[in-house]
């Protein structure tokens, strides 16, 4: 599918900041399932592209003059392909690395119990029957979606998987964190993916989901918020252990006081889309 | 410690004086003990007046303490040093090869020589480093290798420090102080110099500048004047003639690092950092840290700046990886290790764990990620309650710990209140890796000032000594010295 | 050099100079209080008012007494203007920049601090308050001597020099401002100033001998003001300090934009006449000078020492 994406991020500051620096993970990864046709990022004074250790394509943007507004604009076109939600190991990231827990994805007893429920295992730690990984992960996706109702405004970027499960509300990144925590608790490496999702019926345009690594298959995507694996409606921006490694915009500034954030994303399929060209 | 008396650097296992101490021993014998006490006090005055201190957090931004300095040197013969030197250089070369490998090809993990999960799921393994080629393939530019001796011929490596080892300023100040206090000893003994360390360090740092930078600007990045090692940071910056910067002095623009000077921004190419990975870049690591430089990781991965030591070196000096060092040396260098590891039980292995839990009163148990003598159980010195409390911690998370036999660390004569008495010592040589790997003769000898204590860390009341490596290259002016030793 | 390092050296020197100046101010008070005339202004409020710590003082104490004020201004840890705090700040700045200092300079400051770090009021009275104030002055002389005699004439030296000159200019203006009323209060007609008070002031500024040498006459208010404000050869005068600022900035950067500001100020001091000033009110002029100096200090810091 050929998609046109326009993404504006605007911070309005209470008073001028003296200086600010941002990392922008707003450029699609070089993955098999997608090919960038055209992509531009505009923003502050200087912007330099680099690649982080996860292979995410990042820009470092700095503003050295006093400013009371920051605006980043992404405009691009991308060709996506449906890979049945499965990606090979081409990115060179050792899967075992993604067994590591992080503050946001640390499993408590309730999280481990949820993982056990998906695996149909009462043991501690839960065990998966040989060859049952993919069905277990699909059950897990359903369980996470059942237990955590999509509701915005109840969580923030620091909310942990354990808290999400406890409260039962969250947004896509919370679903992803909980799924990742459970997958890792089952001994299955899992990682966080941030990106875009095109849909003609939901508001979710900036999106996050998870991937688990299944031996012999590759990285299998799970999007609990939508109870599905990734399709050609998904655009992959960044991967990491959790939100912190993959978040689209992160920055610090000197001064500026409080900020008001304004984000707008529009995604539209382009006519003349031909799938499977590449 | 057991009942057997420890090996003494001066007297060996008996009463007679060992060869390296023959000249010094004669001198000491002829000296009135009160004279030694007088010079010991003089040393204290020098250190306090110069402000050679380390900081302990307290009111007024930190209390400054002196690290006890002992006036009796630790002496190594030229041949002893040659072995140690080859051994630590071999070790550091292997550490660097290991780091280069785990952040790039991971051959050692594929070969199964080091368990992959031990590296990949280790918090000290930094994915931020994956696929980054660093200048000269060097990660640990400054390493401190902690060595202990148990008898005439046996030295063990106790620990590798590949992150930001400190203490080298004491090595240098101790020598200066000794030269002021005992000029006569330096005239009559051929002692290998250490004063060129800052020069070598600067050369090392310049040799790893980003490609294409002919005259690199090198800076030392400190957490600031309330850091416990601030004296050392200031000292080294002064000795090398480079700027001592804090995070707020640096900024990243267009993927390059600059420092704010009185004449505007100036490009920075090599950062000798003395702050931990977690604090280097708030956008990549600890988000609340004010110590670092936002955007630094970008500049680093773009190859516009070299960070020394490299990010992620902690995975090589991890105490669990330590157990594999002999295999790591064999794997990369095809050589047998020159210096031995202390036999180590890895508590993540159930057999080892069971053995250790049964023998806690005899063993030293350390946390894999701990440092500075914290989070450590010294079995023979611990109370029953302490042992039981530690047992609980081990059972809860065995993989966090390793255990080693309690070594009978060598002792060295030390000036204490009662006169001269043996105290346990270790040795930390500082190894520099850039275009080549080098080490100045000796290092920092740390001494446990309390009788019988084996804990030499300064945070736990340890002191330091000057470390002499005797130069055995013939010098015509040494006639007097030989005449005296034959007495 | 690093902008922050320049700032550190600038403030190190300012704090040493401030400690010295506070010692001088207290000496004036100590000796004025012994003079027979009682004043409309309470003598012991003057040093507090001058350093802007009057309110802080009354938060700690109910009444004014010489011992309390002296203790507050010399030893108090909470008082930002006490000599102890100034020397502490000087030494902390020196410690942060000690790699830029010669060992003589560092050791002189470190030693000063170590000597007073644990000093108590009983220690002080045993030693003698005057003796202690004199000691503070001499430690400052030693600091300047070590600075002049051992530091390379590079930027670091010039920023320390700049700090001394800025602080001295500011303090001389403030000191004269705080004393001017008491010098003139007893002056019914044109009889001249209160002789003893004028002597005390000049002596505290090491200017009594200079006065005799320059004017070889009885004490006159105009001449005192001329000496302390406008004489370019009197090392604690405003004119001298501003010239020193001008020279230092020129040494740092002859093309600096701040230089215009400094020159304007120096030109004003070159051309003004004391008689004209007193006609419209010297205190007005001194207040204006304090404002100008503060603006200048801000410009200097923005130009050379801004970190973020």
How would you characterize this protein structure?
- The complex is a heterotrimer of chains A (278), B (487) and C (308).
- Chain A is an alpha+beta fold and 278 residues long.
- Chain A is built from five helices and 14 strands.
- Chain A folds into two domains: 104 residues, Immunoglobulin-like, CATH 2.60.40.2250; 161 residues, C8orf32 fold, CATH 3.10.620.30.
- Chain A is 18% helix and 41% strand.
- In chain A, the strands form three sheets. In chain A, strands 1, 2, 3, 4, 5, 13 and 14 form a seven-stranded antiparallel beta sheet that branches.
- Chain A is globular and about 60 Å long.
- Chain B has 487 residues and is an alpha+beta fold.
- Chain B has one domain.
- In chain B, helix 3 packs across helix 13.
- Chain C has one domain.
- In chain C, 74% of the residues lie in helices and 0% in strands.
- The mean pLDDT of chain C is 90.
- Chains A and B meet through strand 1, strand 3, strand 4 and strand 13 of A and helix 5, strand 8 and helix 10 of B.
Give a quick set of tags describing it.
heterotrimer, A: 278 residues, alpha+beta, Immunoglobulin-like, C8orf32 fold, 2 domains, seven-stranded antiparallel sheet, five-stranded antiparallel sheet, 5 helices, globular, disordered C terminus, C: 308 residues, mainly alpha
Strand content of chain C: under 5%
Number of helices of chain C: 16
How far apart lie the N and C ends of chain A? Answer: 11 Å
CATH domain class name of the largest domain in chain A: Alpha Beta
């Amino acid at each position: 599918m050929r998609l046109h994406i326009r993404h504006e991020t605007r911070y309005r500051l209470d008073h001028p900041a003296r200086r600010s620096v941002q990392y922008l993970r707003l450029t699609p990864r070089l993955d098999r399932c997608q090919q960038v046709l055209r992509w531009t990022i505009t923003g502050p004074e200087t912007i330099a592209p680099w690649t982080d250790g996860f292979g995410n394509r990042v820009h470092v943007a700095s503003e050295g003059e006093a400013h009371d507004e920051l605006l980043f604009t992404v405009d691009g076109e991308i060709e996506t392909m449906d890979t049945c939600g499965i990606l090979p190991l081409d990115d060179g990231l050792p899967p075992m690395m993604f067994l590591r827990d992080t503050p946001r994805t640390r499993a408590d007893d309730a999280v481990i119990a949820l993982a056990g429920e998906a695996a149909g295992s009462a043991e501690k730690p839960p065990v998966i029957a040989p060859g049952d990984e993919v069905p277990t992960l699909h059950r897990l996706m359903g369980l996470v979606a059942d237990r955590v109702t999509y509701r915005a405004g109840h969580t923030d970027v620091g909310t942990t998987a354990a808290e999400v499960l406890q409260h039962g509300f969250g947004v896509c990144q919370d679903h992803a964190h909980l799924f990742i925590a459970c997958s890792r608790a089952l001994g299955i490496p899992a990682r966080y993916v941030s990106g875009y999702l095109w849909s003609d019926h939901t508001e979710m345009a900036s999106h996050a989901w998870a991937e688990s690594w299944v031996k012999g298959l590759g990285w299998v995507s799970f999007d609990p918020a939508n109870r599905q694996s990734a399709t050609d409606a998904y655009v992959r921006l960044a991967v990491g252990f959790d939100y912190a490694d993959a978040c689209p915009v992160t920055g610090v500034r000197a001064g500026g006081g409080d900020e008001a954030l304004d984000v707008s994303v529009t995604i539209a399929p382009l006519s003349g889309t031909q799938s499977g060209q590449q | 410690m057991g009942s057997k008396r420890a090996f003494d650097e001066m007297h060996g296992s008996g009463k007679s004086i060992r060869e390296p101490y023959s000249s010094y021993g004669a001198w000491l014998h002829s000296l009135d003990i009160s004279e030694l006490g007088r010079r010991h006090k003089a040393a204290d005055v020098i250190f306090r007046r110069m402000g050679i201190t380390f900081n302990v957090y307290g009111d007024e931004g930190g209390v400054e303490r002196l690290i006890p300095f002992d006036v009796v040197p630790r002496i190594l013969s030229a041949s002893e040093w040659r072995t140690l030197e080859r051994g630590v250089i071999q070790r550091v070369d292997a550490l660097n090869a290991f780091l280069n490998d785990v952040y790039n090809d991971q051959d050692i993990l594929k070969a199964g020589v080091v368990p992959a999960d031990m590296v990949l799921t280790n918090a000290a393994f930094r994915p931020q480093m994956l696929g980054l080629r660093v200048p000269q393939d060097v990660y640990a530019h400054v390493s401190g290798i902690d060595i202990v001796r148990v008898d005439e011929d046996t030295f063990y490596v106790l620990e590798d420090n590949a992150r930001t080892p400190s203490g080298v300023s004491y090595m240098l100040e101790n020598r200066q102080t000794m030269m002021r206090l005992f000029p006569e000893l330096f005239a009559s003994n051929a002692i290998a110099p250490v004063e060129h360390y800052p020069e070598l360090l600067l050369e090392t740092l310049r040799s790893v500048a980003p490609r294409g930078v002919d005259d690199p600007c090198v800076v030392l990045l400190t957490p600031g004047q309330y850091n416990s090692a601030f004296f050392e940071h200031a000292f080294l910056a002064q000795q090398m003639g480079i700027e001592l910067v804090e995070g707020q002095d640096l900024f990243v623009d267009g993927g390059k690092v600059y420092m704010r000077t009185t004449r505007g921004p100036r490009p920075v190419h090599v950062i000798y950092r003395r702050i931990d990975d977690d604090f280097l870049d708030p956008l990549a690591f600890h988000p609340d840290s004010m110590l670092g430089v936002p955007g630094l990781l970008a500049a680093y991965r773009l190859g516009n700046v070299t960070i020394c030591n490299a990010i992620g070196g902690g995975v090589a000096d991890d105490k669990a990886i330590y157990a594999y060092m002999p295999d790591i040396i064999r794997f990369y260098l095809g050589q047998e290790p020159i210096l031995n590891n202390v036999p180590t039980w890895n508590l993540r292995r159930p057999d080892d764990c069971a053995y250790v839990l049964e023998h806690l009163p005899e063993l030293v148990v350390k946390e894999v990620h701990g440092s500075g003598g914290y989070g450590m159980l010294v079995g023979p010195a611990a109370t029953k309650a302490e042992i039981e409390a530690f047992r609980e911690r081990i059972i809860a998370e065995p993989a966090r710990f390793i255990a080693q036999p309690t070594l009978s660390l060598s002792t060295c004569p030390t000036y204490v209140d009662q006169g001269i008495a043996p105290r346990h010592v270790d040795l930390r040589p500082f190894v520099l890796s850039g275009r080549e790997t080098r080490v100045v003769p000796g290092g920092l000898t740390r001494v446990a000032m309390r009788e019988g204590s084996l804990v030499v860390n300064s945070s736990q009341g340890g002191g330091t000594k000057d470390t002499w490596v005797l130069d055995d290259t013939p010098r015509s002016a040494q006639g007097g010295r030989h005449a005296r030793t034959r007495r | 050099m690093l902008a922050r390092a320049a700032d550190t050296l600038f403030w190190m020197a300012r704090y040493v100079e401030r400690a010295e100046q506070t010692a001088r101010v207290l000496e004036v008070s100590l000796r004025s209080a012994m003079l027979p005339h009682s004043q409309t202004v309470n003598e012991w409020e003057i040093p507090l008012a001058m350093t802007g710590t009057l309110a802080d003082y009354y938060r700690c104490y109910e009444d004014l007494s010489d011992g309390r004020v002296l203790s507050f201004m010399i030893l108090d840890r909470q008082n930002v203007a006490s000599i102890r705090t100034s020397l502490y700040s000087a030494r902390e700045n020196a410690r942060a920049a000690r790699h830029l200092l010669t060992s003589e300079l560092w050791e002189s400051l470190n030693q000063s601090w170590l000597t007073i770090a644990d000093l108590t009021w009983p220690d002080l009275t045993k030693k003698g308050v005057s003796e202690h104030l004199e000691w503070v002055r001499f430690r400052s002389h030693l600091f300047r001597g070590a600075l002049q005699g051992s530091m390379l004439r590079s930027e670091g030296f010039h920023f320390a020099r700049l700090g001394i000159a800025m602080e001295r200019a500011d303090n001389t203006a403030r000191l004269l401002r705080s004393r001017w009323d008491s010098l003139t209060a007893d002056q019914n007609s044109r009889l001249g100033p209160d002789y003893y008070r004028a002597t005390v002031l000049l002596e505290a500024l090491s200017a009594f001998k200079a006065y005799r040498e320059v004017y070889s006459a009885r004490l006159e208010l105009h001449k005192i003001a001329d000496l302390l404000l406008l004489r370019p050869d009197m090392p604690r005068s405003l004119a001298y300090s501003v010239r020193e600022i001008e020279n230092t900035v020129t040494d740092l950067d002859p093309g600096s934009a701040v230089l215009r500001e400094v020159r304007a100020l120096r030109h004003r001091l070159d051309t003004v006449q004391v008689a004209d000033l007193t006609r419209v009110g010297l205190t007005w002029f001194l207040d204006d000078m304090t404002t100008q100096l503060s603006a200048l200090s801000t410009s200097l810091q923005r130009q050379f020492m801004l970190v973020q």
